[in-house]
Specification:
heterodimer, A: alpha/beta, Rossmann fold, two-stranded antiparallel sheet, 6 helices, 28% helix, B: alpha/beta, globular, binds flavin-adenine dinucleotide, binds adenosine monophosphate
């Protein structure tokens, strides 16, 4: 079974600074990690391979240093890593990113399951996964919290999809793209053998030309959304500690205000 | 092609205004604003602003071959499951009405499902001028394939200017596919919407980086302009039973409505009867509770005030409560009228999921806990004293 995992390198913290001139993030000095949600996707892919055999290939789109993310994935147990990287991809929004990754995956060739994280920790959009599926015209199931069963020969899969009030059990054909949530597993740590392998690992790099990308669909040019303004939100809270000599006094003040605003009876 | 003013660099000198032959530059809040519809990208203003470099042309933007003027009206996706309308739909109708009035365009709802036509009237009474319905047994269960196809078909035929969808499990699953089919932009999880006075573009504001940054995004050159919108940020539209509107029933060819995935069963899974994402009141517990059994205290308070029970990741990781109750960046984003945080320190990741709550009460024994920074009412104290005191104060009125 060929499993492709789409992973993104993100800053290791959400405390970020922006360059006001360019509206871009200042990434220097911030440690980069694999998007935490994508760790579950890598883990699930490795488990599928352990059960059914085959190969786990991680793919990422990003600058040259995103190779580090692939290295970590190799150290966890992935077999191969593809870095889709080209200056022409700069400024991509989710439409352009999903197109680019879809073209990268097409070049890779045969696959049975594509896994993505639920969303990226920096952009929080959750749009790239379904986007890739649409560009590739394969079925998509979001928020997968469990892969119940894969029938390798019949080429079908049965999964559980988290909804706001419970979960649905769904069945679909392979190939398919699934976005996974935290509940699906507990990612393993890097193994010693994996780390050794990662040391000598060199990512295969795909350029815009390699994936035969249409210049109208990549990078800033292929991105319909335009970021006009980035700003730090003003906190709504008043940072007021309730005064009072006793707990009862403080509590009665708060409860009185809650009654006034009809939040409690 | 795109042109923009870097607000932070604009000093408000107005030197650029007279250089614009198109009359595309105006001043708002002492900053230059460029009407991208009038602008012909001649670059004269950029010359005038050499000193401050506050105007930027991004030449390398693809321009649509769509006739943008054909795209009219605000659409709201009326998400329903098993005949039950998602509450965010009424919020979108309320906000959509405002946008429609600002633009002088109509507000429409899109209803997809099986046996759903009867719900169209309700949408009209909540402010829709038109309802587009695809009522088909093939749409009985939500599936990405069929719903995305039906929605894209309607958009291609009726050409809406703006499409708003709730940022729900369903909305965030299939709308990105619709945006790809239509090859247009989609802004995720917006918390603020507006219309630019000059360009008439939809200003879509959303949090990124777990709420530490906000970004305002436009979809300048393509239509429809699409957003998913977080629930509980906009007021629900009020109901007017006398409102009249038009219902358009659309029949789609069977081969368009083919789903490759299928539903086997739905398993309801909620500890309390209140859905966290939709609750008006949430009482959350964190590591400060000390152990699993102390969640009873949080539950008691929640039940008393008709609230749902939430938790920090530390409490979930400790196994005190299931993951479905986790609030925060890796849990649920909530926006209730009242959020009570008990024994939660207020990590960035937790606050990302609850900081837009209307009223926040924080109970923590550490006066320096970050949660107090965003609290409307901060109570410094031991939760084992504060919560019982609160329960009795609410009971004895
Ligand atoms: C990638 C990533 C994603 C994450 N996602 C989330 C997420 O979605 N949601 C989330 O919540 N966290 C998330 N976290 C974890 C987050 O960083 C914190 O670890 C977590 O929120 C801490 O939970 P807490 O506030 O309950 O615990 P603590 O930080 O340990 O705080 C406990 C608080 O209780 C107070 N306290 C103790 N005893 C009492 C008492 N008797 N009375 C009153 N107060 C008391 C203490 O003063 C302290 O402030 C994430 C972390 C990472 C790295
Ligand atoms: N640049 C990228 N390279 C590889 N995968 C990505 C990239 N961006 C997003 N993804 C995948 O898409 C998922 C959703 O990301 P997003 O839509 O940005 O929230 C992530 O969890 C990744 O699996």
């Amino acid at each position: 079974m060929n499993i492709v995992v789409s992973i993104k390198q993100v800053p290791g913290t959400t405390k970020v600074a922006i360059n006001p001139a360019t509206n871009t993030l200042i990434r220097a000095g911030v440690e980069a990690i694999i998007n935490p949600f994508d760790m579950y996707a890598i883990e699930e892919a490795i488990r599928l391979r352990e059960k059914f055999g085959g190969k786990v290939t991680c793919i990422t789109m990003g600058p040259p240093q995103a190779e580090e993310a692939l290295k970590s994935a190799i150290a966890m147990g992935a077999d191969e890593g593809i870095l889709v990287s080209d200056r022409a991809f700069a400024g991509s929004d989710t439409l352009a990113t999903s197109y680019t990754l879809a073209m990268g995956i097409k070049k890779l060739g045969q696959f049975d399951i594509i896994l993505t994280g639920k969303q990226a920790m920096d952009g929080d959009t959750a749009q790239v996964g379904p986007g890739i599926a649409q560009w590739l015209d394969i079925p998509f199931i979001a928020w997968v919290k469990k892969i119940e069963d894969v029938k390798k020969d019949a080429k079908t899969i049965r999964v559980e999809r988290m909804m706001d009030d419970g979960y649905e059990v769904l069945e679909g054909p392979l190939p398919i793209l699934l976005s996974v949530v935290k509940e699906i597993n507990e990612p393993r740590t890097e193994s010693l053998r994996g780390k050794m392998k990662a040391k000598s690992f060199k990512a295969t790099v795909y350029s815009a030309k390699d994936i035969e990308a249409d210049p109208d669909f990549i990078g800033l040019r292929g991105s319909p959304t335009i970021v006009n303004r980035v700003f730090v939100p003003v906190r709504s809270g008043k940072k007021e500690l309730v005064e009072g000599a006793t707990v009862e006094e403080k509590v009665s003040k708060v409860v009185a205000s809650l009654r006034e605003s009809k939040l409690v009876n | 092609m795109a042109i923009r003013v870097i607000t932070e660099k604009c000093v408000g000198c107005k030197l650029c205004i007279p250089t614009c032959a198109q009359g595309a530059i105006s001043f708002v809040d002492k900053k230059a604003v460029i009407d991208v519809i009038k602008c012909n990208y001649c670059g004269a203003c950029i010359d005038a602003c050499k000193k401050f470099k506050a105007i930027l042309i991004e030449i390398d933007r693809k321009v649509s071959d769509q006739d943008l003027s054909l795209y009219k009206g605000i659409w709201v996706y009326a998400e329903q499951r098993n005949g039950e309308m998602a509450s965010v739909v009424y919020e979108l109708l309320g906000e959509g009405r405002k946008l429609a009035e600002q633009l002088g365009e109509e507000l429409s709802a899109v209803l997809l499902g099986d046996g759903v036509t009867c719900q169209a009237e309700d949408l009209i009474q909540h402010g829709a001028d038109n309802v587009y319905v695809v009522d088909n047994p093939k749409l009985k269960d939500f599936q990405d394939d069929t719903y995305a196809m039906a929605m894209a078909e309607l958009c291609e035929e009726y050409k809406p200017n703006i499409v708003l969808t709730g940022a729900t499990a369903i909305g965030r699953s299939f709308i990105p596919k619709v945006a790809v089919i239509l090859e247009t932009g989609l802004t995720a999880d917006c918390t603020q919407l507006g219309i630019d006075d000059y360009t008439k573009l939809l200003l879509q504001t959303r949090p990124a980086f777990g709420g530490n940054l906000m970004a305002t995004i436009t979809c300048t050159n393509f239509r429809p302009q699409m957003s998913t919108v977080r629930h509980k940020v906009f007021k629900k539209a009020s109901k007017d039973v006398s409102r009249k509107g038009k219902i358009f029933t659309k029949v789609l060819a069977d081969d368009l409505l083919k789903s490759r995935t299928k539903l086997i069963e739905f398993v309801k899974e909620m500890e309390s009867t209140v859905n966290l994402s939709e609750a008006d009141i949430i009482v959350s517990g964190g590591r400060g509770l000390g152990e699993a059994k102390n969640f009873a205290l949080v539950r008691e308070l929640a039940e008393l005030i008709n609230g749902a029970v939430g938790a920090s990741r530390a409490a979930v990781d400790a196994g005190w409560i299931p993951y479905s109750h986790q609030v925060g960046q890796t849990g649920k984003t909530v926006c209730p009228k009242l959020y009570i945080a008990c024994g939660i320190s207020g990590s960035i990741q937790h606050m990302a999921g609850m900081q837009s709550s209307e009223t926040i009460i924080a109970i923590n024994k550490d006066p320096n806990a970050p949660i107090f920074e965003i609290a409307t009412y901060g109570i410094v104290g031991d939760l084992f004293e504060v919560i019982p005191a609160m329960i009795s104060a609410i009971k004895n009125r």
